[in-house]
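Lab notebook, design round three. We kept the backbone fixed and only want residue identities now. Task for the bench partner: fill in a sequence for the structure below.
Input structure tokens:
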């Protein structure tokens, strides 16, 4: 049996007020909850998915009770934050063979099947995905020895301490032997476990394509634009569009009603949203059942579900409204 663990226990503070009611793993990006997007990438060899939930775990349980998956999904809710290592330690008795671990806030082009094959070819205790960035200071930074073995791992170094631009991209393949390097006092894979495995037991798997951490408004909107283009999204036939000007990429879902709106680029309008005449929506997401009045200008923003904006509202680079689902 091959299992996958999705770490989904965070509070989503950078996406408030949206995450005051919707847990970050269920925030929809281009119409699909982030957690569902992650599960959709899992290879067919996965027999069970374990979601390590925390904040609003009951909402995540409810989602999976209503949405059937290809593999069974078990939601394990933490009653207090356990950290990345603590969440795995809590599941140690269920892991008896190679397993996957995925952070629950990333959209990427990583081939998990290729990564598992690579991991097994290296006889590693753990393999972590690697991505190259311009500024590595907000991430875990790795230094490779000859080949793929990781010789050094440092979490969130200063600019002076950063010894490479290769970062931990948040997806891991692990063996049960990882638990020999953990105990109930370890809370962080990145700070306490990975640095102990830099003696040849920890390997890195780089990949190409795209990688976006969706935990902030800016990155959410970056991921939205990428997905609208990648998935060929557009205007569904049942959306009501009257006299609108489009600057693609844009996507509008069923039941949405727009009149005399200038839409795009990078605009996503969810089911049931209403946007009135003269409004401009650029680089933004208007979520389900939101209502935007006349002559509004919404730029670089996320309009929460059910939010009602008065005529002539201007929003620039913010998350608007207290969501009501």
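Proposed sequence:
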């Amino acid at each position: 049996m091959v299992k996958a663990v999705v770490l989904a226990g965070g509070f989503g503070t950078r996406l408030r007020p949206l995450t005051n009611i919707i847990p970050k793993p269920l925030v929809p990006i281009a119409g699909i909850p982030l957690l569902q997007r992650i599960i959709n990438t899992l290879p067919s060899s996965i027999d069970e998915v374990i979601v390590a939930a925390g904040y609003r775990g009951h909402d995540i349980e409810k989602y999976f009770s209503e949405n059937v998956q290809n593999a069974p999904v078990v939601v394990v809710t933490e009653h207090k934050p356990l950290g990345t290592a603590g969440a795995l330690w809590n599941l140690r008795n269920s892991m008896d063979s190679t397993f996957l671990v995925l952070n629950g806030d990333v959209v990427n082009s990583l081939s998990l099947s290729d990564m598992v094959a690579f991991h097994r070819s290296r006889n590693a205790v753990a393999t972590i995905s690697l991505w190259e960035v311009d500024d590595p200071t907000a991430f875990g930074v790795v230094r490779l020895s000859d080949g793929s073995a990781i010789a050094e791992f440092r979490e969130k170094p200063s600019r002076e301490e950063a010894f490479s631009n290769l970062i931990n991209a948040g997806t891991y393949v692990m063996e049960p032997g990882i638990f020999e390097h953990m105990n109930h006092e370890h809370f962080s894979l990145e700070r306490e476990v990975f640095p102990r495995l830099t003696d040849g037991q920890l390997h890195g798997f780089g990949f190409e394509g795209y990688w976006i951490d969706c935990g902030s408004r800016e990155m959410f909107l970056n991921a939205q634009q990428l997905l609208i283009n990648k998935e060929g999204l557009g205007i569904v036939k049942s959306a009501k569009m009257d006299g609108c000007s489009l600057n693609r990429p844009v996507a509008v879902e069923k039941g949405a009603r727009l009149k005399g709106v200038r839409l795009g680029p990078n605009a996503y309008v969810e089911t049931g949203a209403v946007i009135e005449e003269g409004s401009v929506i650029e680089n933004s997401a208007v979520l389900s059942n939101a209502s935007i009045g006349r002559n509004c200008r919404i730029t670089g923003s996320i309009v929460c579900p059910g939010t009602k904006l008065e005529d002539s509202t201007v929003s620039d680079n913010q998350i608007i409204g207290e969501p009501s689902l």
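Keep this in mind before ordering anything: The longest helix spans residues 217-230.
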